[in-house]
Design brief:
Elements: H1 8-17, E1 22-25, E2 30-33, E3 45-48, H2 57-69, E4 78-82, H3 92-96, E5 101-110, E6 127-131, H4 134-147, H5 155-175, E7 178-185, E8 188-197, E9 203-211, H6 220-234, E10 240-245, H7 251-258, E11 261-271
Parallel strand pairs: 3-4, 9-10
Antiparallel strand pairs: 1-2, 2-3, 4-11, 5-10, 5-11, 6-7, 7-8, 8-9
Helix pairs in contact: 4-5, 6-7
């Protein structure tokens, strides 16, 4: 299986994971490994070419064990990406094996001509939208991300994971292929996100768009995403941006209001380790 055969969502995901990671093209799947981030589910996964069947469970569990779990004992999760827009099979055996999170993902794109006008922001006169210098502001970003985490994730473990992720982003920033952005209100990082890209005339992929709970419903996320899009097109000279989102979450409406439109879907099947099950 070749990376070029993947849909845009997974192809841009591989773009992000390839820096400091391992992308292996196998006959039956794409292997994604991130040795420096073993607890990152989607940095350590198998991407399957089509929707799996129930009778393939044993094969794929063995492949995951061979390619990821045995090589990285700290990767205690199981994660399979599916390069398909539908799961025609119910997969009861997979659910019985504990692979109980089946998440469909909307893949949205934006080109310069589709970008909407800059949106208003409510009741936030001190707002500054800017690129973060991760060489000196990495802790600011990490602590904001820990505060905004899913409550099922242990704070200390999540902090370790986000530090690894942000250290990788800092290296990408240094290499000129990634940046991190923040919506600052005074000294507070109210919202943040990243962008990984392939260089001028190329593709950009958003990373981790998050707003602190107390700053939501003011338009900060919309303003930050719009700011990043403008920077990507005007300064980085990118031609196309990709955003992957939960089609059932309110955030997808924010991205659409900026001008993003859905072009495809894919699926993520996972089993969390016990430490991340709340």
């Amino acid at each position: 299986m070749k990376v070029d055969h993947l849909g845009l969502g997974w192809r841009s995901h591989v773009l992000a994971c390839g820096f400091g990671g391992e992308i292996v093209e196998c006959d039956d799947c794409i292997v994604v490994r991130s040795p420096s981030m073993p607890t990152y589910y989607w940095g350590n996964c198998l991407i399957l070419p089509a929707a799996p069947r129930d009778d393939e469970l044993g094969h794929w569990l063995q492949r995951f064990d061979d390619e990821i779990a045995r090589r990285q004992p700290d990767s205690q999760h199981i994660a399979f990406g599916v390069n398909a827009d539908a799961l025609p099979h119910a997969l009861p055996a997979w659910r019985a094996a504990g692979i109980d999170e089946f998440d469909d993902t909307a893949v949205l794109t934006l080109e310069p001509s589709d970008l909407s006008p800059a949106p208003p922001v409510r009741n936030t006169p001190e707002l500054v939208l800017r690129t973060l210098d991760l060489a000196r502001e990495i802790d600011l970003a990490i602590e904001a991300q820990v505060q905004a985490r899913d409550a099922s994730f242990d704070a200390d473990g999540y902090r370790v994971f986000r530090r690894s992720a942000m250290q990788r982003m800092a290296a990408m920033q240094q290499a000129g292929i990634g940046e991190w952005f923040g919506a600052m209100v005074g000294d507070v990082l109210a919202a943040d996100c990243g962008l990984v890209h392939s260089g001028p005339e190329g593709l950009g992929r958003f990373q981790y768009v998050e707003t602190q709970t107390e700053w939501r419903r003011r338009g900060l996320c919309r303003a930050l995403v719009h700011h990043v899009c403008t920077h990507a097109f005007d300064t980085l000279k990118l031609k196309r941006l990709v955003m992957c989102a939960d089609p059932h979450d309110v955030a997808i409406g924010i991205y659409r209001s900026v001008g993003f439109s859905q072009v495809e879907s894919h699926w993520c099947l996972q089993r969390r380790p016990a430490r991340d099950r709340g």
